[in-house]
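Much of what follows relies on a compact textual record of a protein's fold. A record is reproduced here so that you can trace the correspondence yourselves:

. . .
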Amino acid sequence: MPHEIFHYKTWNDIELTAGRLGISLPHSDDLAVLNTPLKIGAFTAHNRIALQPMEGTDGTETGSPGELTVRRYLRFAEGGAGLIWFEAVATAPEVRASAHQLMLTQENLDAFKRLAEQIKEAGLKKNGFAPVIVMQATNSGRYSKPHGYPEPLIAYSNPLFEDTPLPQNCILTDDQLKMYEERFGETARLAQTAGFDGMDVKCCHRYLACELLSAYTRPGAYGGSFENRIRFLLNAYRAAKANITGDFFLTSRLNVYDGFSYPYGFGVAPNSGLAPRLDEAKCLVGILRSEMDIPIINVTAGNPYKNPHVNRPYDHGNYVPDEHPLVGVDRMMRCVSEIQHCFPDLPVIGSAFSYLRQFAPYLAAGMVAQGSCAMAGFGRMAFADPGFPNKILSGQTLDAPCVTCGGCAKLLRAGSPAGCIVRDRQFYSLEALK
């Protein structure tokens, strides 16, 4: 049964379907484990719920937070999550994913500083604690659209993503990659000055650092061997590390599995089809842990442009995957769990909980209770109901969950302000795209 609309009334209904699919999802009725603190370096998250980075495409042309940006994050802060993983912020003008993607510069530093202060103040006033805030620094690479249309900067040509090969000048040279590594240094300095607690050197969903992880066919210092393919990421960390001080920490939202066969996908092996094989991912996390002293890692998978069901299982939309959504949830949980059990002293944030709607908290509690992740990360759910963490932590039912319709992603891809078209219609609608 590859495609099935969500119809579950109880967790038992989910288990029955999962059993027919030959999978088993962790579950706990006791949600108290989600209401326990978590040490993250020198900081402490008040609970085990994290908000994943969800771009709002609502910044100004110069990259400053816009009115909708501020509205969104103040609602997130009041919602009660222990950690807010702030959305992708571009490290250079030409690598913005849209004309309205946020970009932190010396010129707009004060605007970001005000927003970081507002987030912490709103959380403290509403919930009695300020959330830990991690800013995601990005180079959009293949998905750069700084003027609203594609201007790709790629690591290597890839027939999975190109009907015809892109011009040679789209392939970044080694010297260009070195330049973009250094941009993470300046962004880290600014992020700390702005009041964020940490910075994510983004390495997921096929953006530049992530694409380089699968650059098996690229010649030179950034392709071929594992050491070469992780070079950009590690050098970006080194540049960032040289520009920060004190308790400010570095981390990554990291693809451990791309969902594409070798040689175009990371987290797979030659002649293994699409089966996850996390040997290299675990080696990379080990290096980040030992050499870069990361205090937490955020695990994800897939590509939202080509196989969106891998990182955000769903049952609505024009693109119909050839697998049941619960299979995608199970695969993500297994990938997250494998990393967490390999590094029991490193907190791992899991992904892809939102598909289960009102039952997502029980999967999250089950994963945390059995030591398969340290925090549960939610993205789409926060768009639909920014107050959902407090509902979970107070034992309330999620009465307005994400329905995985993909409307927020459609707005994002179109470069329009992104939010929930079901629960927040006053501000977000697909009508804006017509």
About this structure: The mean pLDDT is 96. The two ends are 34 Å apart (CA to CA). The longest strand covers residues 83-90. The domain at 26-433 is CATH 3.20.20.70 (TIM Barrel).
